[in-house]
Amino acid sequence: SDAELIADLRGYRGTPEEALADAELMALVLPVLRADFLLAGTYAYRPRPALPCPVHVLAGTRDDLRRPALEAWGRETRSGFAIDLFEGDHFFLHSRQAEVLGIVDAALSRRMNGGPAATLQ
């Protein structure tokens, strides 16, 4: 139900309470979020050819994903790979926005200058 999905979103602590309380906004976004959760819950990994571009993983130290799951992304590229961990949960980027943007900027700058965008860390 919508109420259950809103309760789940509230539990993730990543959506402002004002947004969750806005019935008109929720009517617009809940169908999309419901579809996203369904897709994520039914996804089955299938090996594919490695990507020709670097992969740079950014994750929170208190997110549900463990280090081996993050490192598995390294098998998905035949180019550079890096992991950066930030103090926080899945929504760490709310409090670490400047650092995240700095990493993205540095990776793009390296790539534009002919170097790899990511290096193993």
From TrEMBL:
Q: Which residues form the signal peptide?
A: none
Q: Which GO terms describe its biological process?
A: lipid biosynthetic process
Superkingdom, taxonomy of origin: Bacteria
Q: Which Pfam families match?
A: Thioesterase (PF00975)
- What InterPro entries does the annotation carry? AB_hydrolase_fold, TEII, Thioesterase
Which intervals hold domain Thioesterase? 2-107
As for family, the record states: Belongs to the thioesterase family.
What name does the UniProt record give this protein?
Thioesterase
According to its UniProt entry, this protein's organism is Inquilinus limosus MP06
